[in-house]
Amino acid sequence: MVLNRKPCEKYLKRLKVVFLKIMHDMLKANSRIRILNGSLPFLSRRPICSNFNTMDRLLRRRQLCLVWLPLIAVDCAATKDRSLSSNAKEENVSTTMSDQANSIYDFTVKDTYGKDVSLEQYKGQVVLIVNIASQCGLTKNNYKKLTDLREKYGDKGLKILNFPCNQFGSQMPEADGEPMVCHLRDANADIGHVFQKIDVNGANTAPLYQYLKAKQGGTLSSAIKWNFTKFLVNKEGIPVKRYAPTTDPMDIAKDIEKLL
């Protein structure tokens, strides 16, 4: 970005504040940052130049150019016990099936006992898809509120599809089948339909999640950031909205009502 108008000191100060905030946000999002002729620690301690007059002179002469190059790291190895930051990196995976899909109805998944389930059976219904975990700090509230959602809107056409995932801090250790069913029963989590444990990021990402992320990307990358990311799907099987892990399920109620 080349600035070719005469800046005042107030403008330059504001520019620096905005610039540093953007750099800080990029670091929080696990981006790699390259800054021409400088580094973020250097900029955080003092102005880009020795003083604003110098910077002013360079800008007016068009001799100063700020280049922002956020680079999202790519990790092609699927690993277990991954942290929030590593899961924020979208990985190279085959998206052929998700590219060809017209809706979630084109996918077949497995229930917790390993039996095939065509999502076409949910045609004409509003669907909320969630990656769940049993030992997350968000588990208790999400189990309760997802149960509340199902009880309130289940008879009106809402279906909640829950996909256990152990990729975030190994917080879903329960095995599929009876161990999973017993866990949910003991937790009083009547949250809807539960399917086989899957990967939502990486080389082994379930085809359904490849499709969901392609239709509703996230912040900076489409990768699932943590447990209890939620996708709302309309009656035509199209994902229409994505919600962060920290979004309270009951805060989605107004959007669900619009689709029912």
TrEMBL record:
Domain Thioredoxin, first and last residues per copy: 98-260
Gene Ontology biological process terms from the UniProt entry: response to oxidative stress
Gene3D superfamilies membership: Glutaredoxin (3.40.30.10)
- Write down the superkingdom of origin: Eukaryota
Keywords associated with the record: Oxidoreductase, Peroxidase
GO molecular function terms attached to this record: peroxidase activity
Q: State the PANTHER family in the record.
A: GLUTATHIONE PEROXIDASE (PTHR11592:SF78)
Family to which this protein belongs = Belongs to the glutathione peroxidase family.
- Designated name of the protein: Glutathione peroxidase
Species whose genome carries this gene? Glossina brevipalpis
Q: Where is the organism placed in the taxonomic lineage, from the top?
A: Eukaryota, Metazoa, Ecdysozoa, Arthropoda, Hexapoda
